[in-house]
Write a structure and sequence with these properties.
The protein is α+β, with helices and mostly antiparallel strands. It has nine helices and 21 strands.
């Protein structure tokens, strides 16, 4: 009956601990700690048997239960030290009174209750087995019962007096055991403990009666189960344990992600609590405030800046592009002829590409400067080809069929060489006009060398003006007679197609060497320094010009270049857009072109 009562008590003590274990297993934190007892609390309960060495000849095993609350301190190198408080209750017993003789005394059973504290030294092996040794000091309260042979409890008498006992005392203990880490929360244990009792009345039989000198001692052997609590250190209290926290010094109250770092909603590298611009689009570089930088310092952040490489100090409009007051496609800081009327084509300096009305003024000459039309090596540059294409169109619309192309040079070098060079310049333009559709029979070219300067040759500025091409109609007697025979008619004014009143958003005038050109992609090309786009290739020059005009209207600096393929007759006309100082600008233009209908 008493053993059944003891089992009930053990069960009642185990129920709360088992409930706590169940809660721990089914409410795991997503940040499970490693299997370790260090820096954690251990709540445990154990039960087992007792064995006492007293004045009775034979020890009878009885039961005991223990409860312990312990904090385990990490000592490093797999060692830890435990500090605990504990409570123990149970029984010790013995029988066969061979060491003394008292009337009726046959056996004893003493109920013991201990309250105390202790120290343990633990060593962890393989994150699984933890041997330990320990010791403690306890206050013990005990109540011995003496029984006769029939098992009846009675009060023994010695020398005519009742045998008394001191019901309270202090005892020291020593313990050796093994702990087993079943999970990161559950610990099983097995332990053996010895208790030294400083008196001899644990069995109510003193040395005076037994004529002995030894003190009473008893031992326990127990099995236990424990629950590890806490031990997940979170220095910045952001909810992420230090061992998983990539940002262990997060300020209080700041929202963090699963790695313990402050949330950065827009992914710009600046956490939300410091981000003054929290909705930065993906891919932009930001400053320490989380706001998009202004790479060119024009006051327009990069995400709105359509011209992110504006030179420092240049005034820009709302989209970060240099202001173009007259809308001619050449920004003010490069425009040498500001105030150009709407609808006029201009050259790279923003000056009107002036073509005389030859029909009204046949004696006027169109003057083109070599330095603007040609590369340093022989051959027209893109600007020259574009301008000559426009001039050829005007010539084809003129009433005069015959035209002269006259080349002039400066006075540097031998006269014969200068005549040859000026003739070569005129020849290049002659062939360009023929390729544009003009009849070669109506075109004549020649070189005059340095014989007819229009400026002094003492300065480079003067020499650059002398290096020129003059184009004008050839008025023959036959032409005059035909004009006289024609009835007077009013011809409608021929107007060039105006460029829309808006800045060119993509491309600008930059030096570009076609001879060194290589492909970056199937659309983007580079001369090793700057970039351009090649959009399409045509055999029909008129069609190529129409396509280029469409892109110019959309804000692209489009133009047409001419090329020849070996062993293939005739010219090919390529629609190009340029130029760009960076590959990123060229890619942006290529992407924008895809949206042009």
């Amino acid at each position: 009956m008493k053993k059944l009562y003891a089992m009930k008590k053990i069960t009642l003590l185990l129920i709360p601990l088992l409930f706590a274990i169940q809660q721990s297993l089914f409410a795991q934190n997503i940040y499970e700690d490693e299997k370790s007892i260090a820096d954690k609390f251990l709540l445990s309960v154990s039960g087992g048997i007792t064995y006492a060495k007293t004045d009775f000849q034979r020890a009878v095993t009885d039961y005991i239960i223990k409860g312990k609350f312990e904090y385990l301190i990490d000592l490093g190198s797999s060692f830890s030290m435990g500090l605990d408080v504990n409570a123990t209750q149970g029984y010790v017993a013995g029988d066969q009174t061979a060491t003394f003789r008292l009337s009726r005394v046959e056996s004893f059973r003493t109920r013991i209750t201990l309250l105390g504290g202790g120290l343990t030294l633990n060593y962890t092996l393989f994150d699984l087995v933890i041997p330990y040794i320990g010791g403690g000091l306890h206050y013990i309260n005990f109540e011995p019962e003496i029984k006769d042979a029939s098992g009846e409890v009675f009060v023994p008498i010695y020398n005519g007096a009742t045998i008394g006992y001191q019901s309270g005392n202090y005892t020291a203990s020593g313990e050796f055991g093994l702990r087993f880490l079943v999970t990161d929360k559950i610990v099983l244990s097995v332990a053996g403990t010895g208790y030294y009792f400083p008196a001899d009345d644990l069995d109510r039989v003193t040395n005076e009666i037994s004529n002995g000198t030894a003190k009473d001692i008893f031992f326990t052997g127990t099995l236990g189960v424990g629950l590890l609590i806490g031990g997940t250190k979170d220095s910045d209290r952001d909810g992420i344990p230090d061992k998983f926290d990539m940002c262990p010094d997060t300020p209080p109250g700041v929202k963090v992600d699963e790695s313990g770092c402050p949330v950065d909603s827009d992914g710009d590298g600046v956490p939300d609590y410091l981000d003054e611009c929290p909705d930065t689009p993906e891919g932009y570089i930001v400053d320490e405030r989380g706001c998009i930088i202004d790479s060119d310092g024009d006051g327009v952040p990069d995400d709105r800046d359509r011209c992110p490489f504006t030179p420092l100090g240049v005034e820009v409009e709302e989209y970060g592009c240099p202001i173009d007051s007259d809308g001619d496609g050449v920004p003010d800081y490069l425009d040498e002829c500001q105030g150009t009327p709407k609808g006029y084509y201009v050259n790279q300096y923003g000056c009107v590409l002036w073509v005389p009305d030859f029909d009204a003024n046949p004696n006027q000459k169109l003057v083109l400067y070599i330095d603007q039309l040609f590369n340093k090596e022989p051959g027209l540059n893109a600007f020259g080809k574009s301008e000559l294409g426009f001039i050829a169109k005007r010539i084809s619309e003129s009433k005069y069929p015959d035209w002269a192309i006259v080349g002039h040079s400066d006075n540097v070098g031998e006269p014969a060489a200068n005549r040859f060079l000026s003739s070569e310049w005129a020849k290049v333009i002659f062939y360009n006009f023929v390729e544009s559709g003009l009849d070669s029979a109506n075109l004549k070219y020649t070189g005059m060398g340095s014989e007819f300067p229009i400026a002094g040759n003492a300065s480079e500025e003067g020499r650059s003006q002398n290096r020129r091409i003059e184009i004008y109609p050839v008025i023959t007697e036959q032409t005059r007679l035909k004009e006289q025979e024609k009835p007077l008619e009013i011809k409608p004014e021929i107007k060039t197609e105006p460029i829309p009143d808006k800045s060119i958003l993509y491309g600008r005038s930059l030096p570009y060497n076609y001879d060194n050109e290589k492909n970056v992609t199937d659309v983007i090309l580079t001369d090793g320094r700057n970039f351009s786009l090649q959009l399409s290739t045509w055999r029909d020059k008129k069609r190529a010009d129409e396509v280029a005009a469409k892109y110019r209207k959309a804000g692209f600096n489009a133009f047409v270049t001419e090329t020849f393929i070996p062993n293939v007759s005739g010219a090919f006309y390529k629609v190009r857009v340029g130029f760009f100082s960076s590959l990123s600008d060229a890619r942006a233009a290529a992407q924008a072109i895809a949206d042009v209908k």
